[in-house]
């Protein structure tokens, strides 16, 4: 005959159940609060474009002052890279960010609105700032991003993560989206924050944003683009965007500025090219969330099994108690 459930065994089962329940709740709490990249809003209307696979990679230094420019991932000699897509000429080309200067002229000067909704800019209302607008101004370079290279479309899993690693310049940079005149602005990158700032970009996306510089001078933006591929690999690459803000800023100074990539505290140096299974740079939060979800499910299943076993043991104990009592009276 199976040993009846004693008070001590019941207490041990209760303690075990409590531990598992607490573990499951903790895993679910971590899952609910796990940090994930911001998600950029839907692409700006009327930004339809397609990118041909044979668009060339241009070489040599160039300065882009007006016209359509995107940053985005592309494969060069089978290597994942971050490049600038130059659509300012009749035949678009790709360019190395380190050889490309984005000139933000005095035509970009705008007055900061006296509106609390724009307090995130960190610039006093009524002050003048240099703005590369989300909606094209033909007198100002028009900067956005895309994930439309044909090989990128075929190989990435759902999308990419664009991360601002750091900014060097005489003032602040803020990048934000705003859908329509009445929608609240959505900040994406703020140089006033010292941490890495990622946001998610869906596959086959073409989007433009507002880029606000608080002061003239040379700015270097270290940017990382990373993705999970459909074959299970991870890729990551970094590049430095060079800006000469203001008509008086020297292009020579901008090209001569040191372009080393800053790595925020607690961050690993980003991998260049495909990352191995143990690399964390460029990884997607999807894997972390999946692992936490699996842990929570396993703990929940264990809890259910223990509860069912406990109920079964109690029923057996209740059935056997009259028998034990009658035998004790004999």
Radius of gyration: 28 Å
- Largest sheet: number of strands, sense, barrel closure: 8 strands, mixed
Percentage of β-strand residues:
25-35%
Based on DSSP secondary structure assignment, what is the total number of beta strands?
18
Low-confidence stretches: 1-7, 23-36, 41-46, 264-297, 303-308, 323-330
Helical run tally: 4
Distance between the termini: 19 Å
Q: Which term fits the overall shape?
A: globular
* Average residue-wise pLDDT: 78
Task: Return the structural class.
Answer: alpha+beta
Element-level helix/strand string? HEEEEEEEEEHEEEEEEEEHEH
Helix content: 25-40%
Quaternary form:
single chain
Which helices and strands occur, and which strands form pairs?
Blueprint (H helix, E strand, L loop, with lengths): L6 H27 L4 E2 L22 E3 L2 E10 L2 E8 L6 E3 L4 E5 L4 E3 L16 E5 L8 E6 L3 H6 L3 E10 L4 E5 L8 E5 L6 E6 L3 E3 L1 E4 L3 E12 L5 E12 L5 H6 L16 E3 L9 H45 L1
Parallel strand pairs: 1-13, 2-6, 3-9, 6-17
Antiparallel strand pairs: 3-4, 4-5, 7-8, 8-15, 9-14, 10-13, 10-16, 11-12, 11-15, 16-17, 17-18
Helix pairs in contact: 1-4
């Amino acid at each position: 005959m199976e040993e009846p459930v004693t008070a001590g065994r019941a207490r041990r089962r209760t303690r075990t159940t409590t531990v598992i329940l607490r573990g499951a709740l903790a895993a679910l709490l971590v899952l609910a609060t796990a940090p994930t990249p911001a998600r950029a809003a839907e692409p700006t209307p009327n930004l339809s474009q397609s990118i041909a696979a044979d668009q060339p990679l241009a070489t040599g230094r160039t300065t882009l002052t007006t016209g359509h420019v995107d940053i985005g991932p592309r494969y060069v000699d089978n290597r994942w890279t971050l490049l600038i897509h130059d659509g300012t000429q009749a035949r678009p080309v790709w360019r190395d960010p380190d050889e490309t200067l984005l000139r933000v002229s005095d035509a970009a000067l705008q007055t900061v609105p006296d509106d609390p909704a724009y307090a995130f800019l960190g610039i006093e209302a009524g002050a003048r700032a240099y703005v590369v607008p989300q909606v094209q101004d033909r007198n100002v370079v028009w900067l956005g991003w895309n994930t439309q290279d044909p090989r990128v479309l075929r190989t990435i899993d759902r999308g990419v993560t664009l991360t601002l690693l750091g900014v060097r310049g005489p003032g602040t940079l803020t990048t934000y989206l705003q859908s329509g005149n009445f929608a609240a602005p959505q900040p994406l990158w703020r140089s006033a924050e010292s941490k890495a700032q990622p946001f998610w970009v869906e596959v086959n996306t073409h989007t433009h944003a507002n880029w606000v510089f608080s002061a003239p001078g040379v700015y270097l933006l270290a940017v990382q683009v990373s993705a999970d591929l459909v074959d299970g690999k991870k890729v990551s690459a970094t590049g430095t965007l060079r800006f000469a803000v203001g008509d008086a800023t020297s292009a020579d100074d901008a090209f001569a500025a040191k372009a080393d990539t800053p790595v925020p505290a607690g961050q690993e140096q980003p991998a260049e090219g495909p990352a191995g299974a143990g690399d964390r740079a460029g990884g997607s939060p999807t894997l972390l969330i999946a692992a936490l979800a699996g842990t929570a499910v396993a703990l929940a299943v264990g809890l259910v099994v223990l509860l069912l076993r406990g109920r079964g043991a109690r029923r057996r104990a209740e059935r056997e108690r009259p028998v034990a009592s009658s035998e004790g009276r004999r």
